[in-house]
Structures are given as C-alpha cells and as structure tokens.
C-alpha cells in the first residue's frame, strides 16, 4: 500500500470542539438554509472563512449528520487540494472527503486526522468485490497520533434508487466491512450509476464520533422528490 499521509494531513487551524449536546451548525445552518427567503444572507454573522462561502452562491453544499449526536447541518465546500475536498460548517468544524470517502475530521472531537483509502476506493468506485487495507491516523486524548490498519471486505449489495435534494439517483450500493485487532465497523456507499460518484455515504469516524452520514445537496433546501422506484436486489 502506498502511504500518502503527508498529502492527507490537511490540518485546519483553530477549529472549535463540538460538545455532544451542541448543534454543529446552530448559528449558521438557519441562515444558509434560508438564504433564498429575502435577499442576500447576512454574512456578517459568520466567521470570515464561512461568510465568504455563504456569499458565493456557486459553492456546492453537502448535508452531514453525526448520528451519535443527532446533529444535522449543511456544509459548504471550502477547498479542493490534491483531490481532497474540505467541507466547512458555520462553527468551522470540517470534514475532508476524497471521492466521497472520509479522509478526516476537524473540530468534532477525537479527530480522524488522516486516512489512506486508496485500496478500498478502487474497489468501491469500480463496483468490484475484494479485500483491501485502509489506515486511520487518529488524534488521541493526549495529542498523540495513533495509526491503525484495518482489513476490509468490499462487496456489492445491489441497486437502489435514492431520493436526494439533487433528485432521484439510481445507485449501486457498496459495503465495506473492516476489522483491526480491537475495532470493527461497516461503511456503506451509494455510487451513482450515471456519474460514478458517491452521492451518499455512511462512514465510521472512530469510537467517540461513531458514524457520519453525508448526502449530496443543493444550496437551498428542498424536499426530495418521491422516488419513481426503489430497488434493492443482488447484482
């Protein structure tokens, strides 16, 4: 496996930690979610980094849910460096994705500092079944980096038409079952059959954070259209 941790160590300085009872996006989400109601969004309510993204209506959006904290909000794309997208919330918490797969978190606690996903990514995006290795580097409570190797089985679970804000998307459902000496998890990815991109995912971020769900979204909230069909069948 080719190690790429240097390229993936995208550390965002000054991100705030988020407590379990605190809404990830409490100030910003309400503004971003309603920016089309009457005139431009009041960007002076945000930190400058996030305000610039709110003002630029061409910036893509992403819906993120931290399941263990029942937190959901809309993030905006801040940057793309070496193929890794940094999605930012109004409180400057962030998630890093490469081709829709989680490379890291910032400001959420017990950070996933970086991950090497090259092997499972190849299988997931191509719809192949097989074994692969992934590496996680987590920031521990004493500010040390701990790297763990996981052995994963990637499988195709079938097809599904899912309803997102961007519309109904025909997808291939891929699962990734991973185990280390003392941890295990299962990630699920919905890969668009049209574009080949991951449009929805449920991914494990560590023992403290648990699972994070991401969904492709629009800048302005809208109700997903009822699916014309929903199919889940082995391929």
Report on this structure.
- The chain is mainly β and 235 residues long.
- The protein has 4 helices and 12 strands, in the order H-H-H-E-E-E-E-E-E-H-E-E-E-E-E-E.
- The protein has helices at residues 5-8, 28-33, 48-55, 118-126; strands at residues 61-66, 71-81, 84-88, 94-98, 101-106, 112-116, 130-139, 145-164, 167-179, 184-192, 198-204, 211-217.
- A 12-stranded antiparallel beta sheet has the order 5-4-3-2-1-12-11-10-9-8-7-6, sandwiched between helices.
Topology readout:
Elements: H1 5-8, H2 28-33, H3 48-55, E1 61-66, E2 71-81, E3 84-88, E4 94-98, E5 101-106, E6 112-116, H4 118-126, E7 130-139, E8 145-164, E9 167-179, E10 184-192, E11 198-204, E12 211-217
Antiparallel strand pairs: 1-2, 1-12, 2-3, 3-4, 4-5, 6-7, 7-8, 8-9, 9-10, 10-11, 11-12
Strands, count: 12
Order of adjacent strands in the largest pleated sheet: 5-4-3-2-1-12-11-10-9-8-7-6
Count of separate DSSP helical elements: 4
One letter per element, helices H and strands E, the order comes to HHHEEEEEEHEEEEEE
- Strand % is 35-45%
Instruction: Return Rg in Å.
Output: 18 Å
Between the first and last Cα atoms, what is the distance in angstroms? 29 Å
Class computed from helices, strands and strand pairing: mainly beta
Average pLDDT number: 80
For this entry, what is the oligomeric state of its chains?
A: single chain
Helix content: 10-25%
Unreliable stretches covering 5 or more consecutive residues: 1-41, 228-235
Shape: globular
Q: Major β-sheet, in short?
A: 12 strands, antiparallel
């Amino acid at each position: 496996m080719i190690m790429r941790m240097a390229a993936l160590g995208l550390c965002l300085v000054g991100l705030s930690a988020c407590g379990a009872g605190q809404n990830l996006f409490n100030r910003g989400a309400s503004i971003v979610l309603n920016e089309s109601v009457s005139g431009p969004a009041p960007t002076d309510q945000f930190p400058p980094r996030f305000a610039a993204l709110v003002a630029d209506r061409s910036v893509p959006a992403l819906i993120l849910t931290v399941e263990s904290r029942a937190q959901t909000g809309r993030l905006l794309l801040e940057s793309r460096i070496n193929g890794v997208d940094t999605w930012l919330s109004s409180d400057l918490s962030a998630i890093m994705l490469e081709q829709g797969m989680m490379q890291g978190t910032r400001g959420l606690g017990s950070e996933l500092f970086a991950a090497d996903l090259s092997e499972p990514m190849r299988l997931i995006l191509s719809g192949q079944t097989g074994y692969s290795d992934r590496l996680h580097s987590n920031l521990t409570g004493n500010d040390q980096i701990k790297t763990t190797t996981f052995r994963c089985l990637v499988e195709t679970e079938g097809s599904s038409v899912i309803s997102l804000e961007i519309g109904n998307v025909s997808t291939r459902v891929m699962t990734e079952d991973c185990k280390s000496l003392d941890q295990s998890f299962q990630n699920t990815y919905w890969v668009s059959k049209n574009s080949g991109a991951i449009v929805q995912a449920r991914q494990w971020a560590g023992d403290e954070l648990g699972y994070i769900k991401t969904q492709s979204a629009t800048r302005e909230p809208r109700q997903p259209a009822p699916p014309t069909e929903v199919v889940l069948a082995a391929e």
